[in-house]
Design brief:
Length: 216
């Protein structure tokens, strides 16, 4: 029997994902009440509207997010987004360094980093002192052939200063990045399948996903 584990945060109107970026606004373009005039008695529909930056909730980064001449969200191969063999590293609140990953086979796998930081989601604490992936660990993941990398933290990079070496290395190698995962404590360290598929939006560098794991 298989178990589906939801690894995504909900997108809620007014809830901020990243400091400095606006929170989404979710509303009705056409409400159930207002739609009644278009249909026969007893028939009504809701047509929603959302205004958001594409880095909202749990989302995937495409190479275009970092490099202006590289592929956007619509161009990521499904083989890097869906039905990937997964491996989960548990850092217990620390950043992921080279020593933690270099002993494992990650080729063609989705590498998920369980820091536990998602427990702070929706609070000011989420924006302060988050764990991340080191440059050395990212370089090793590229060399080792990882297919996808995700983390349950504010950012896969340290945001102290203006450099983003992990984004730069992974996206240059066409390795998509999922940020703001959750519930990674509910999946095993190995033996699961990972899915994080965005809408095929042309010109998007990032886009929200319903990430989940298929666990035997």
């Amino acid at each position: 029997m298989l178990n589906l584990v939801d690894l995504s945060h909900r997108v809620i109107s007014g809830q901020q994902t990243y400091p400095g970026l606006p929170a989404p606004t979710v509303s009705a373009y056409l409400s159930h009440q207002d739609s009644r005039s278009h249909y026969t008695n007893g028939t009504e529909f809701h047509i929603g509207e959302i205004c958001m930056v594409m880095n909202t909730g749990t989302y995937v980064d495409a190479p275009f997010h970092r490099y202006r001449n590289r592929g956007d969200i619509s161009q990521i191969e499904l083989q890097r987004l869906a039905n990937l063999d997964g491996i989960c590293f548990r850092t217990r609140g620390a950043s992921l360094d080279l020593a933690a990953v270099s002993r494992f086979d990650v080729r063609n796998k989705a590498v998920l980093i369980h820091t536990g930081w998602s427990q702070h989601w929706g609070s000011p604490e989420y924006f302060r002192g988050h764990p991340f992936v080191t440059r050395e660990a990212a370089a090793w993941l590229v060399q080792a052939g990882a297919a996808h990398v995700g983390i349950d933290s504010l950012n896969i990079d340290s945001i102290d200063g203006g450099q983003r070496p992990v984004h730069s290395l992974l996206l240059e190698a066409d390795i998509p990045i999922t940020e703001h995962l959750c519930n990674l404590d509910r999946i095993p360290e190995q033996g699961f399948r990972y899915f994080a598929v965005p809408v095929k939006v042309v010109g998007a560098g990032s886009f929200p996903v319903r990430a989940f794991a298929l666990v035997p």
